[in-house]
Design a protein that fits this description.
Helix 1 packs parallel to helix 2. The protein is an alpha/beta fold. It starts with a strand and ends in a 13-residue tail after the last helix. The chain has two domains: 171 residues, Rossmann fold; 176 residues, Glycogen Phosphorylase B (Rossmann fold, 3-Layer(aba) Sandwich). Strand 6, helix 6 and strand 7 form a beta-alpha-beta unit. The chain has a seven-stranded parallel beta sheet, with helices on both faces. The protein has a six-stranded parallel beta sheet with strand order 10-9-8-11-12-13, sandwiched between helices. Helices cover 41% and strands 17% of the residues.
């Protein structure tokens, strides 16, 4: 099949990486994939690293308009079988191209809140060829908000399990670079530094943990509007010297293996939770909250632990539980790696997407088997 993806975003967090990851997964399956993206964006970098055909539009005052024009020109020339986007800016452009070229459209939604426009809601629910959400929670939440989800399919984020993998060399290099000793136990956080991601709940949870476990260290990777407040709280802590801060890295693959435990402490509803799955792919156990779709990213008690969102005491207890048992962390890491390879790997999600597109009627829901 021939696919045309379009994306106008500039950031490189999980939401933005989803489309690029799916495009790469389909290209590896032998499909013809073309992408129109904003030049200089993280999405462009991810696609080019994987040698996926990418038309990058130079940033500037008219970039959005040029993105639309380039997309129209490429669609008319290539006549793809499917036009795919998770970017709302392209919804109506693709609907117009659908009539003009005969291509079909597949629209992803990543946000927990339904579109404000009733016209857009009706288009997604009734007129798009495929309307795709990224977790069971996401579908249930849209239904709760009053949106018609009868035709909405669920497709999880694809994870590059060849890239996100255990690696002793990466572990040693990163820990040496940031003065993390071989005997230290490293707790990691990766994501946006904003309150709703639970960064302050995690900081509070870790204070008694650091007091109890002398070898515990913390690695914060990310940026956002609340970064300085978090840094200020850490600076005032008695354990400030045991925290490390890094800006968000486009290539996170080498950082996960450096950690002994990854925490995803979100207090706001997550539609999925890519960091949790990437960490498990790298053989690292996780602790996540029950905020939305995060519950679907692990096998509780087998590949990681779940705590109540916003409950710092419960989060602290879960971290203590895993820090105290290195063998359990090792078992969880191995089980997590197997779980992700079986259910979220590029090849698996690409096959699921092919099956979804090949159905005559609305897509069936695909839920991973929890074995």
């Amino acid at each position: 099949m021939k696919f045309l993806f379009a994306d106008s975003t500039t950031r490189g967090y999980g939401t933005e990486q989803h489309g690029a990851a799916l495009a790469i997964a389909l290209a590896r399956r032998g499909h013809t994939v073309r992408c129109v993206v904003r030049g200089g964006s993280s999405v462009e970098a991810i696609l080019r690293q994987s040698d996926v055909h990418c038309l990058a539009v130079t940033p500037g005052a008219l970039c959005s308009l040029r993105l639309v024009v380039r997309t129209i020109v490429l669609a008319r020339r290539e006549r793809p079988d499917w036009l795919v986007t998770g970017d709302g800016r392209f919804h109506w452009v693709f609907m117009g191209l659908r009539r003009l070229t005969g291509s079909r459209v597949a629209f992803f939604r990543h946000w927990p809140v339904v579109p404000k426009s009733g016209r857009t809601r009706r288009m997604l629910a009734h007129r798009a060829d495929r309307f795709i959400l990224v977790s069971r929670f996401h579908r249930e939440e849209y239904q709760r908000q009053g949106m018609n989800v009868a035709r909405a399919a669920v497709l999880y984020n694809p994870i590059d399990t060849e890239l996100f993998r255990p690696c002793a060399e990466w572990r040693a290099q990163i820990r040496a670079r940031y003065d993390i000793g071989a005997a230290d136990v490293l707790i990691g956080y990766a994501g946006r530094m904003v309150r709703e991601k639970g960064i302050f709940a995690l900081f509070e949870a870790l204070e008694p943990v650091l007091a109890e476990f002398e070898q515990a260290r913390v690695l914060w990777v990310g940026d956002g509007r609340d970064t300085e407040e978090l840094r200020g709280r850490v600076a005032r802590s008695a354990h400030a010297s045991r925290h490390r801060f890094l800006d968000w890295q486009l290539d996170m693959a080498q950082f996960y293996p450096a950690c002994d435990l990854i925490v995803v402490p979100s207090v706001g509803a997550e539609t999925f939770g890519r960091v949790s799955v990437e960490a498990q792919s790298a053989g690292v156990p996780v602790i996540v909250t029950d905020a939305g779709g995060l519950r679907e990213t692990l096998i509780p008690g087998v590949t990681g632990l779940i705590t109540a969102a916003g409950d710092s005491s419960a989060l602290s207890a879960a971290v203590r539980e895993l820090l105290a048992d290195a063998q359990r962390r090792e078992r969880m890491g191995a089980a997590g790696r197997a779980w992700v390879c079986a259910h979220f790997a590029f090849a698996q999600i690409a096959r699921d997407f092919e099956a979804l597109l090949g159905q005559e009627g609305p897509g069936e829901q695909r839920f991973p088997t929890r074995e």
